[in-house]
Amino acid sequence: MKKIFILSLIAGCLCAACEQQTPRYLDTTVSIDNRVEDLLKRMTLAEKIGQLNQYSDDVSDSYPMLRNDYYVQEIKEGKVGSLLNITGGTKRVREYQNLAMQSRLKIPLLIGLDVVHGYKTTFPTPLAEAASWDLDAIKLSARIAAVEASATGVNWTFAPMVDICRDPRWGRIMEGAGEDPYLASLIAVARVQGFQGDKADAVDGIMACAKHFAAYGAALAGRDYNSVDMSLRTLWDTYLPPFKAACEANVATFMNSFNDLNGIPATGSRYLQRDILKGQWKFQGFVVSDWGSIGEMITHGYAKNSKDASAKAILAGNDMDMESYGYIRFLDTLVTDDKIVDITVVDDAVRRVLRKKFEIGLFDDPYRYCDEEREKAALNNPEHAKAARSMAAKSIVLLKNDNNLLPLSKSTKTVGFIGPLVKEHKQNLGAWSIVDVFMSDVNCEEFIVSQWDGVRQRMDADSKLLYAKGCEIEGDDTSGFAEAIAVARQSDVVVLSIGESKLMTGEARSRSDISLPGVQEELVKAICATGKPVVVLINTGRPLIFNWVADNVPAILYTWWLGSQAGNAIADVLFGDVNPSAKLPLTFPRSVGQIPLYYNHFNTGRPGATDTDYVFKSGYMDVRTSPRFAFGHGLSYTDFQYADLKLSKKTMNSSEQITVSLNVTNTGKYAGEEVVQLYLRDRIGSVVRPVKELKDFKKIHLQAGETKLVEFVITNDKLCFYNDLLQYGSEAGEFDVMIGSSSEDIRLGDAFELK
Ligand code: NOJ
C-alpha cells in the first residue's frame, strides 16, 4: 500500500482532491520540462498518438473534410495534435481550439500553414528575395509574414525551404535561396529569425520549419519527387549546411522530404533524422513528415503497408504524421501488440510536440492567436506594403544594360508597354500565394499593383503609355503581334513584360524545356525588328534560358515574381527611383544540356574548354561550358571600382585570422549599392576542392564619387570542409583570395597560406 502511495506521488498525484487543483502542467510557474513530463504522465497511449497526428482542413474538394463529424469528434477526443490549411482566419481557428478544449486534457492544436512569402501582403518569391543578398530585408519579410499569419490564428509555418538546388528544371527552385551553401545558410537563419521573432512565445511570431530534410532539391533530372543519389561528402558540404544553420538558429521544427536519398526515403531515414539531426546536431524540436510521405514509403518500395511505413517512420525519427493516417491507425498496435515500437520512442516524439506547444504559450492561452482586432490591423497595415515594395525592388536583377538604356526618363514622351504580363494582377504573386488559395475575399484587382498601374502612375502627366498584349504566355497564337508592332512603332522606347505563368514553378512544376514559353521570343524578335530601344522584364520563379533575348535586347531586368507590390517596384527600378542592386543567387545556364551547372564546381583534370577548343577538354561540342549569367552577377546604374586589396598577413594558423581589405569607389553618376563578394579556393586538398567558394560578402551603399573601405575577416571556419571520412576541418596549404562583383567578374586577387 505504502509502495503504491509513493509511486503515485512520483507519478504525479491523480486522486480526485488533487485533480480539483490546477494540474501541474497548467501551472505557469512550473518549468516547461516539468510541465511536459506532468502532462505526459497523464496521457493515455491514444492521446499521445493524437499529438502526432495532423490533418488538413478542406481547403479544396480533394482534401479530407475536417468539417466531417468524424474528424470533429477526433479533435474532441484528443486524437489530433495539429491542423493545417485552415481558411477563415481567427474565427475558424477559434472554433477548432474550442473543439480541442473539449478534450480530456485540453491540449491546444498547432495550426500550420505554408506561409512561404508573405501572408496577405505578398513578398517576392523566396528565390527572388535571395537575389537581394540583403539579410535584414529578408528577415523583415519573414517577420511581416509572421505578424500577419499569427494574427489570423496560424502558429506554425512550413517554411523556410532551405533546399540547395542546382537544377532550374525543378519547379521548387523558386522556394529556396539558390545554389550556394554559404548564402543559403545565412538566408535560412534570417528567415527562421524573422518567422519566429525574438522570443519563442512572441505572440506575433510563428514556429518555422526547415524543409525538406534532406537533399530534395537534388531530385534527379529536376523532376519533382524523384530520387536523389549523391555522395555523403556532397550532402554534408553542399546540401546540409543550411539545415544545420537553421537548427543552430533554433528553428522549432523540421520537415522531411518526399525523395529517397541513396535508396532510403528521407521520411524513413534514421541516418538523417536520428543520427544527424537529433543526434549530432542535438535538435530539440520535432520533425513532421511531408504530406503523405509516410504512406509514400509503400510506393517507394520501402514499406509493406501503412503499418510498416508508420513503424519505419517513427523509428527513424519522424515525429508527426502529416496526412498519411498511419500513426493514428497503427501506432497503438505497433506499441502494445507487436512491440515493434517502444513506448519511449512515442514518448520522445510527443514530448517534442508538447514542448513546442508550451513554448509558444498555447497552454497558457489556446486563443492567444485569435484576436480579431489584431487580425484586422495586421492585414491592413500600410507599413507592410511599403516593406513589400522595397523588398521587391531589391530583388530585381539588372542582367544587362547596354549603352545605359536604363533608367528611363519619366518624361519619355511615349512608352510602349507590351506583353502578356503587363496587365496581370494575380500572376505577380507567383506560387505559394495565400491570397490566391485561401483569401477569396481579397479583391486582387485593387490589392495587387499590376505592372501597368505601377508604371502608368510613375510617368509624367503629359507622357503617353501605350499597351498591347502581343500574345499569351503559352500557345502559338501570333495574331496580336501586328497590334504590338504598331504600338512599338509609335513609342520612343518599348518595355516588354514576358515570362512564365505563376504556376509554371512551384511544387510538381518541373519543366524539361526552360525556355520562354509560347511565342514570346518571337514577339520579342518582332518588336526588336522595329528598331526601337527595348527593355525586357522577365517574370518567372526560376532561371530561364533566353539566349536570343540575352544576345539581342539591350536591357534586361529579371523581375521573378515580385508579389503584391510588383508594379510599384518595377516602376521604381525602371525609372531609377531605386538603383538595382540584386545579384543572382544561382547560375543561369545557356542550355538545358549544361544542367547541373553551378559556380562552385571542381576543376576536373581537363578544364578550360571554350566554344571552339573543346577537344579532349571537359566541355561540349555544341555549347560553351560557361554560364549565360554567372552566380553573383547583377548590374547597377552606376559603376564600382575595386582597388587596394590588402591582406593583413600572408600566413595564418588555425587559431589566427587574416583581414582582407579593399576600397570600393562609386565611379558613376548615381548613388547605388554593391555586393562585394569574397571567394576562396583551397588549391590542394586531400579531396579536390571547388574552383571557388563564396565565403563572405558585404552589401554597401555608396553615393556617387564615394569610396568605402570593405573588410573581410578570414578565420579557420571559412577554410573547413568535410574530407573523405566526413571529418570536418581545414587542411594546411595555400588558398587563393578572390574579390569579385560576381563569381566570374573577379576584380582583385591574392593568396595566403594556412600553416
Ligand atoms: C507538400 C510540400 O512538399 C510541403 O512543402 C508543404 O509544406 C506540404 N505539402 C503542406 O502543404
Structural commentary:
This protein has 755 residues and is an alpha/beta fold. Among the domains are: 391-594, 3-Layer(aba) Sandwich (Rossmann fold); 640-754, Sandwich (Immunoglobulin-like). The strands form seven sheets. It has a six-stranded mixed beta sheet with strand order 11-16-15-14-12-13, sandwiched between helices. Residues 1-18 and 61-65 have low confidence and may be disordered. Bound molecules: 1-deoxynojirimycin (NOJ). 1-deoxynojirimycin (NOJ) binds at residues 114, 158, 211, 290-291, 507. 1-deoxynojirimycin binds at residues 114, 158, 211, 290-291, 507.
- CATH homologous superfamily (4th level) name of the domain at 391-594: Glycoside hydrolase family 3 C-terminal domain
Strand content: 15-25%
User: Which architecture of the domain at 391-594 per CATH?
Assistant: 3-Layer(aba) Sandwich
CATH topology title of the domain at 391-594: Rossmann fold
Structural class: alpha/beta
**Alpha-carbon distance between the two ends:** 70 Å
Number of strand elements: 26
Percent helix among the residues? Answer: 25-40%
Shape summary: globular
Runs with pLDDT <50, length 5+? 1-18, 61-65
Using the coordinates above, name the CATH class of the domain at 391-594. Answer: Alpha Beta
Query: Count of helical segments?
Result: 25
Question: Hetero groups bound?
Answer: 1-deoxynojirimycin
Mean pLDDT: 95
Radius of gyration: 27 Å
Question: Strands of the biggest beta sheet: in what spatial order?
Answer: 11-16-15-14-12-13
Tell me briefly what this model is.
By secondary structure, the protein is an alpha/beta fold.
